[in-house]
Automatic annotation (TrEMBL):
The gene is aroQ. This is 3-dehydroquinate dehydratase. GO terms for biological process: amino acid biosynthetic process; aromatic amino acid family biosynthetic process; chorismate biosynthetic process; quinate catabolic process. Catalyzes a trans-dehydration via an enolate intermediate. It is an enzyme of class 4 (lyase). Substrate binds at N73, H79, D86, L100, S101, R110. Its EC number is 4.2.1.10.
Length: 147
């Protein structure tokens, strides 16, 4: 099975922007972590990042019929994007939402996520470890669904 990992705006700057909040790891480090974990779990990991809302929407559409599950860190679009929410609603498989930081310890405008309304589960505050745990959760969900 194949998992599409979607990263939203500004996550390309991971390791450089607000390192006290997001750490020193780069997005490439997170990609390698996900690919390694995918190999362990028997999942094909397709890891992507875009700063553009419509591109993320297109990728969710593309995932319909090609990906078994989604891992989504939509960055700030989590808090604003009805379009991404609607696209995720049209995806049939499990969706794990991940945030590196604990969004509930931060500004009030980060406490609401449109992605959460479409997600199977949410992991936040665990840094890149959250991506690894999300992949494990997706694997378990897919195995359970396959019987
Ligand atoms: C984030 C949290 C969002 O509020 C923020 O806009 C980001 C990163 C996280 O991974 O902690 O860009 O999604």
């Amino acid at each position: 099975p194949s998992i599409l990992v979607l990263n939203g705006p500004n996550l390309n700057l991971l390791g450089q922007r607000e390192p006290e909040l997001y750490g020193r790891e780069t997005l490439d480090d997170v990609r390698r972590l996900c690919e390694r974990e995918g190999e362990t779990l028997g999942l094909r990991v397709d890891f992507r990042q875009s700063n553009h809302e419509g591109v993320l929407v297109d990728w969710v559409h593309e995932a319909r019929g090609t990906a078994a599950g989604l891992l989504v860190n939509a960055g700030a679009y989590s808090h604003t994007s009805l379009a991404l929410h609607d696209a995720l609603r049209a995806f049939e498989g499990p969706i794990l939402e991940v945030h590196l930081s604990n969004i509930y310890r931060r500004e009030a405008f980060r406490h609401h996520s449109y992605v959460s309304l479409a997600a199977t589960g949410v992991i936040c505050g665990l840094g890149s470890e959250g991506y690894r745990i999300a992949l494990q959760a997706l694997r378990a969900r897919l195995a359970a669904a396959a019987g």
